Amino acid sequence: MTQAEFLALRRKAFAKLDTDKDGVLSFEEAAAKTIANFTGADADHDGKLTAGEFQATSSMRRSGDEGA
Which residue numbers in the chain have pLDDT < 70? Predict the structure, then answer.
C-alpha cells in the first residue's frame, strides 16, 4: 500500500465519521462507532458489559464485522 492509498483510506474514514460534514469530528461523531459496538455487545441491554459479552466482541473484530 502506498502512502497516498493509505491517506485516501483515512480521508474516507474521516468523511464517514463526519456526519454533519463540517470538516471536524465532534466527540459524539468520533465515539458513535464505539457506542454502537458497545450497544451491540450488550446482549442483556443493561448498559454494562459482562466478561462474556466483552469476549464476544473479539470474535466480531477478528471476523471483520466491526467495519471501518
Answer: 59-68
Residue 38, phi then psi, degrees to nearest 5: -60, -50
Report the 10 Å Cβ neighbour count for 31: 13
Length of the chain as a residue count? 68
Are 68 and 13 in contact, with CB atoms under 8 Å apart? yes
DSSP line for the chain = --HHHHHHHHHHHHHHH-TT-SSS--HHHHHHHHHHHHHHH-TT-SSS--HHHHHHHHHHHHHTTT--
Quick one: which of 3, 14, 5 has its CA closest to 68? 14
How far, rounded to the nearest angstrom, does the alpha carbon of residue 67 sit from its chain's CA centroid? 7
pTM: 0.60
